[in-house]
Design a protein that fits this description.
The complex is a heterodimer of chains A (241) and B (187).
Chain A (H helix, E strand, L loop, with lengths): L2 H13 L6 H12 L11 H23 L2 H5 L2 H26 L9 H19 L8 H26 L8 H23 L5 H8 L2 H30 L1
Chain B lengths: L2 H13 L3 H21 L4 H17 L10 H27 L21 H5 L4 H11 L5 H7 L4 H29 L4
The chains are: A mainly alpha (241), B mainly alpha (187).
C-alpha cells in the first residue's frame, strides 16, 4: 500500500462528521461571555526579552554594588571580554526561551533542559580556558558562601522575571519554572563574576557555575509544587461538590 | 479567504471583547478539538469536559495570542496541555482508588459508518504521540511546522512520527485488506 492510498483512507475517515452537543457549545459560550472583555495583547518578544535582560543585569549590578566590585577589578581585559559577553548571550537566550514558554505554540529554538546544561557547560569551558590557578584554598567554606550569595541574588531576579511574565504560562509550567530558574541563576553568576575576587579555577568552575543548575532545579520544583497544589485544590473542590 | 486568516480575524475580535466572534470561534473549532480528545481515546463525556476546560483556558490566555500568527498551533498547544494534565490527574486518581474500584474502562473507539473504519478506530493502535501528529496533520489540516509548534518539538521529529505512523497504518490496512479478500468482502 502506498502513502497516497493511506492518505486517501485518512482523508476519507477525517471527513466523517463529528458532532458536539449544541447545548455544550452554548454552555461554553455563555460561561465565556460572562467574563468577556477586551484584553491587552502582549508586547513584542524582543521587548519582553529585553525587559528580562535588564532585570537580570540590574539585580547583578545592584548586588555587586552593595558587596563591592572586587571580582571585575581582579579580572584582566581578555577575561572580562570573554566572560561577560558569554553571560550576556546566555541571559538573552534564557530570556527568549522564557518568553516562548509564555506563549503557547510559539517557535522553540532551544528546550529549557538543553539551555540549562549547554549554558552551564559553556561557562565551565570558559572558566577552564581562562583560569590557571589550581589551588583549592578554603575550597568548601568559600565555595558555599559564593553558592549561597549567587542563589540569594537569583531569588529577586527570578521573582521579578515571574512578575513581568505572570500573565502567561497556559501550557507547561514546569518547563517555565526550569527556564525561569536558569535565567535567575545566570543573574546570580553574573553578580559573582562582578564581586568574587577568588579566581581559583576549581572554585569558579564548580561553585559559581553550580548556581545555574541549583536555581533551575529550584524553579522547576517550585512550579511543580504550585501546579500540584492547584491540582489538589481542584480535586478537593470537585470531591466536595 | 484563507480559512486560517479568517480564524485569525475572529481571534483578534475575540481579544477585543467581541462576543459574536468568540461564539463563532467556539462553533467553528469545537468539533475538531472534541475529535482531537476522542482520537486520544478519551470517552465522549471526558472529551466534553476537556473541551470545556480547553475553552476556559483559551479564554484565560487569550492575550498571549499574537495577531498575524497562525491560530491553530496556539490553540492545539493549549488543548494538548489540557489533555496531558487530564491524563496525569486520571493516573493519580486511579492510583488512589486502585483496589477499590479497579481501572475505569476506556471508551471503545467508535467504528466508521462506511467501508473505511472511523478515524478513531484507525488511529487507535498507534502510540499517543503518533496519533496526535496524524490527527493534527489530517483533521486539523496543520502544516508540519505548525504541528511542531503545537507539540513543542522539531519539524524533523514530527516527520519521523508521521513516517512511523504511516508504517504502522500500512501494516494495519494491508492486514485488513487481506482478511477482507479471504472472507470475500470488498478490498
Amino acid at each position: 500500500m502506498r502513502d497516497r492510498e493511506i492518505d486517501q483512507v485518512l482523508n476519507q475517515a477525517a471527513q466523517a462528521r463529528h458532532d458536539v452537543d449544541p447545548a455544550l457549545l452554548d454552555r461554553i459560550a455563555s460561561s465565556i461571555g460572562s467574563s468577556l472583555g477586551p484584553v491587552r495583547p502582549l508586547p513584542p518578544t524582543w521587548a519582553l526579552t529585553g525587559a528580562l535582560f535588564l532585570v537580570c543585569a540590574a539585580v547583578a549590578l545592584a548586588g555587586a554594588a552593595r558587596s563591592g566590585f572586587y571580582g571585575i577589578q581582579k579580572l584582566g581585559v581578555f577575561e572580562r571580554t570573554l566572560i561577560f559577553p558569554t553571560l550576556g548571550i546566555l541571559i538573552w537566550l534564557a530570556a527568549m526561551t522564557f518568553v516562548s514558554q509564555m506563549i503557547p505554540g510559539s517557535r522553540r529554538r532551544v528546550t529549557p533542559g538543553t539551555l540549562l546544561w549547554v549554558g552551564s557547560l559553556a561557562l565551565v569551558a570558559v572558566f577552564a580556558v581562562l583560569f590557571r590557578d589550581y589551588r583549592t584554598d578554603h575550597f568548601v567554606s568559600q565555595g558555599v558562601i559564593c553558592l549561597a550569595a549567587g542563589l540569594l541574588h537569583a531569588i529577586p531576579a527570578g521573582f521579578a522575571s515571574w512578575l513581568l511574565l505572570r500573565r502567561g504560562f497556559a501550557v507547561n509550567a514546569i518547563s517555565a519554572g526550569l527556564v525561569a530558574g536558569t535565567l535567575a541563576g545566570l543573574a546570580g553568576v553574573t553578580m559573582l563574576e562582578l564581586h568574587c575576587p577568588n579566581l581559583q579555577t576549581l572554585h569558579v568552575m564548580l561553585w559559581h557555575t553550580a548556581v545555574i543548575p541549583v536555581s533551575g532545579a529550584a524553579g522547576a520544583f517550585l512550579a511543580w509544587l504550585l501546579r500540584y497544589r492547584a491540582g489538589s485544590g481542584a480535586h478537593e473542590r470537585s470531591a466536595s461538590e | 479567504m484563507n480559512p486560517d486568516s479568517d480564524l485569525q480575524m475572529l481571534m483578534a475580535r475575540y481579544q477585543q471583547g467581541d462576543l459574536t466572534a468568540a461564539t463563532a470561534l467556539i462553533h467553528r473549532l469545537s468539533a475538531q478539538l472534541h475529535r482531537f480528545f476522542v482520537v486520544q481515546l478519551a470517552s465522549r463525556s471526558d472529551a466534553d469536559d476537556l473541551l470545556q476546560e480547553t475553552w476556559l483556558r483559551i479564554h484565560e490566555a487569550r492575550h498571549t495570542y499574537r495577531a498575524g500568527e497562525p491560530l491553530l498551533p496556539w490553540l492545539y498547544a493549549i488543548a494538548r496541555h489540557i489533555r496531558v494534565d487530564h491524563y496525569r490527574k486520571a493516573r493519580r486518581t486511579i492510583a488512589r482508588e486502585e483496589g477499590l474500584e479497579g481501572i475505569p474502562e476506556v471508551a471503545a473507539p467508535p467504528a466508521g459508518s462506511g467501508k473505511t473504519p472511523g478515524l478513531e478506530a484507525l488511529l487507535a493502535p498507534l502510540p499517543e504521540s503518533q496519533r496526535e501528529v496524524i490527527e493534527m496533520l489530517k483533521v486539523a489540516g496543520m502544516s508540519l511546522e505548525e504541528v511542531a509548534r503545537a507539540t513543542s518539538s522539531s519539524v524533523g521529529s514530527v516527520k519521523q512520527k508521521a513516517h512511523r505512523a504511516y508504517e504502522k497504518l500500512r501494516e494495519q490496512l494491508s492486514g485488513m485488506g487481506q482478511s477482507k479478500a479471504r472472507t470475500g468482502g470488498p478490498s
